[in-house]
Write a structure and sequence with these properties.
Distance between the termini: 71 Å
Order of helices and strands: HHEEHEEEHHHHEHEEHEEHHEEH
Number of strands: 12
Shape: elongated
Oligomer: single chain
Radius of gyration: 42 Å
CATH class of the largest domain: Alpha Beta
Number of helices: 12
Helix content: 55-70%
CATH architecture of the largest domain: 2-Layer Sandwich
Length: 476
C-alpha cells in the first residue's frame, strides 16, 4: 500500500500539516491560558490591594464584621469573585458570602500564611464543592511593618476555560479543513514529481551498492532539477573522495610496509645469523632509523586527523613574535649542520587571528625541509612581506632544487621528489600536504616561488590580514 511514492508523499505531508497545526494550536492555547490566568490574577491582586487599603483602618481589636463583610461584598461584585477578610490570627472577620460564609472560623490555608508573612499567596485549585477550577489570591493588609490581616480572593476560572475550549474547537476545525485542502493539492501534484524522484531513488540505491558513476538527467530548472544537479555534484564528490580514500589507504600501506619490511629483515638477520659486533650495531641502527620513520609517519597521520580540533583554538597573535620563536627552535639544527641563516623580518608586521600551533607547523615544516635538503656550508633565508590585505612569508635555500615536472605534485600526500633520499632523511611525504591544508583553510595560498635544480628553491605562503584586529591589539 505504501510502496507508492505519491501516497507516501500525501501521507507525509498530511501528517506534517497535522503535526504543525497541532503544535501551533498547543502553543497558542498555552499562551492564551497563561495570558488569561495572568490577567485574572492581576485583576484579583489589584482588587485585593484596593480592598486592603480601604479596610486597613477598620482592622484591629473589635473589628466590625458586618462592616467588613459589606466592604468585601461591594468589592466582590465588581470582579465577580468571593472576598474573605482574615485577622492576624487567621480568623475570618469579613466574608462577601452572607449565607453559608466563613465568619468566625479559622482559615488555615498556605495562601493566608504567606500573606500574613508579608508576601502574596497564589494558587489554582479544583473545587469539588462547585465542580470547577478556581484562582485564589491572598493580599496582606499592613500598616508600616505591622500585619493587620489579609484579604483572600477566590474567582472561578470557568469563563477562561470556556473561552479556551472554543478556541480549541476552532483550531481543530481549521486543522481538518487544512488537511483536506492540502491533501488534495498533494495528490494532484505528486504525480508530476514521481518520475524524477523515482530516478533519484534508483540512483541513490545504486550508489549505496557501490556503483558511484550514477548521474541524473536534468530536465527542468525547478527544485527537482536543482535537486538532480546537486545529486550529480554529490555523486561526483563521493566518487572523488572514495578514490582519494582508496589512494590514501594504499599510500599509507605502502609507506608502512617499507620500514616494517626493513625492520623484519634486520630482526631475522640478528636472529638467524652469527654477526660481528659491528654488523649487529649496524643492524640495530637500521632498526632504530626505520622505527623513527614509523613514529614520524604515525605522528603526521595523527596530525591530519586532528586538524579541525587544532584549528578551533584560534587567537590573535603577533606574526613577528611567532616567527622569531620558530627561528630560535630551528637555530641549533642550522648551526650543527654548518649552515647560515638570514632573516628579513620587518617591524610592524600585522596581527593574525589563527591557531598558533598550526602556523608554527607551517613555518617549521618549510624551514625543516630547507635544512634537510641544503648541503653543509649552504644558507637559508626567512623573509616576510606585508601588505594591507595579506602577508607573505618566504623560505629560500641553496639546496638541491626541484625538477620542474615535480612541482605540480609537491603538495600531494606522500609525494617525494627523491624517494630514496627523502626516506633516508626521515621525510614522510606529508609535511607539505599538511601545510597546504592549513594555509588554505585560513584563506591563504602556498607554493614554490622559484626553483632551479641543483641551485635552490624558494617556498612561500600567504595569509589574509584582518584590519579589524590590528588597531585594538596594537594599543594594548
Amino acid at each position: 500500500m505504501f510502496n507508492s511514492i505519491r501516497l507516501r508523499m500525501a501521507v507525509t505531508y498530511l501528517l506534517l500539516i497535522a503535526a504543525v497545526m497541532l503544535a501551533t494550536g498547543l502553543i497558542l492555547l498555552n499562551m492564551l491560558e497563561k495570558y488569561y490566568l495572568s490577567s485574572a490574577e492581576e485583576n484579583l491582586e489589584r482588587t485585593g490591594r484596593l480592598t486592603a487599603e480601604f479596610i486597613a483602618s477598620y482592622l484591629g481589636d473589635g473589628a466590625d464584621t458586618v462592616l467588613l463583610s459589606n466592604v468585601a461584598e461591594n468589592f466582590s461584585r465588581q470582579i465577580n469573585a468571593r472576598i474573605v477578610i482574615v485577622s492576624p490570627q487567621k480568623t475570618v472577620v469579613g466574608d462577601s458570602l452572607r449565607v453559608g460564609g466563613l465568619l468566625g472560623t479559622v482559615m488555615e490555608r498556605k495562601e493566608v500564611q504567606e500573606a500574613l508573612e508579608g508576601g502574596t499567596g497564589r494558587s489554582i485549585q479544583y473545587s469539588r464543592l462547585s465542580d470547577q477550577w478556581v484562582l485564589q489570591v491572598c493580599i496582606p493588609v499592613e500598616k508600616g511593618d505591622t500585619s493587620l490581616g489579609a484579604v483572600f480572593l477566590s474567582s472561578s476560572l470557568k469563563p477562561v476555560y470556556q473561552t479556551l475550549t472554543a478556541v480549541r474547537r476552532f483550531l481543530l476545525t481549521s486543522t481538518l479543513v487544512s488537511m483536506v485542502f492540502a491533501g488534495g493539492l498533494v495528490v494532484l501534484f505528486a504525480h508530476h514529481l514521481t518520475a524524477p524522484i523515482k530516478e533519484l531513488t534508483a540512483a541513490a540505491q545504486q550508489m549505496a551498492e557501490g556503483k558511484l558513476d550514477q548521474r541524473i538527467p536534468i530536465n527542468s530548472a525547478d527544485e527537482i532539477g536543482r535537486l538532480a544537479q546537486q545529486f550529480n555534484i554529490m555523486a561526483a564528490r563521493v566518487k572523488e573522495m572514495n578514490q582519494r580514500l582508496t589512494r590514501f589507504v594504499g599510500d599509507v600501506s605502502h609507506e608502512l610496509r617499507t620500514p616494517l619490511a626493513s625492520i623484519h629483515v634486520c630482526l631475522q638477520s640478528l636472529q638467524n645469523y652469527e654477526l660481528s659486533a659491528e654488523e649487529r650495531q649496524e643492524f640495530l641502527e637500521d632498526i632504530n632509523h626505520e622505527t623513527q620513520r614509523l613514529i614520524y609517519l604515525v605522528e603526521d597521520l595523527l596530525e591530519l586527523t586532528r586538524r579541525q580540533e587544532i584549528s578551533d583554538k584560534r587567537e590573535v597573535l603577533s606574526l613577528k613574535a611567532l616567527l622569531e620563536e620558530v627561528l630560535e627552535l630551528t637555530r641549533p639544527r642550522v648551526e650543527r649542520k654548518g649552515l647560515k641563516l638570514f632573516t628579513e623580518i620587518p617591524e610592524g608586521l600585522p596581527y593574525l587571528y589563527i591557531s598558533p600551533e598550526e602556523l608554527k607547523r607551517v613555518v617549521f615544516n618549510l624551514l625543516d625541509n630547507a635544512i634537510k635538503y641544503t648541503p653543509d656550508g649552504g644558507w637559508l633565508k626567512l623573509g616576510v612581506e606585508s601588505g594591507p590585505e595579506q602577508v607573505m612569508v618566504t623560505v629560500q635555500d641553496t639546496g638541491c632544487g626541484i625538477p620542474g615536472e615535480a612541482i605540480p605534485y609537491l603538495f600531494e600526500r606522500f609525494y617525494r621528489v627523491d624517494k630514496a633520499r627523502s626516506r633516508y632523511l626521515g621525510g614522510t611525504g606529508l609535511g607539505l600536504a599538511i601545510c597546504k591544508e592549513i594555509v588554505e583553510r585560513y584563506g591563504g595560498s602556498i607554493g614554490v616561488l622559484e626553483t632551479r635544480e641543483g641551485v635552490g628553491s624558494t617556498f612561500f605562503f600567504t595569509l589574509p590580514v584582518d584590519p579589524s584586529i590590528q588597531q585594538p591589539v596594537a594599543e594594548l
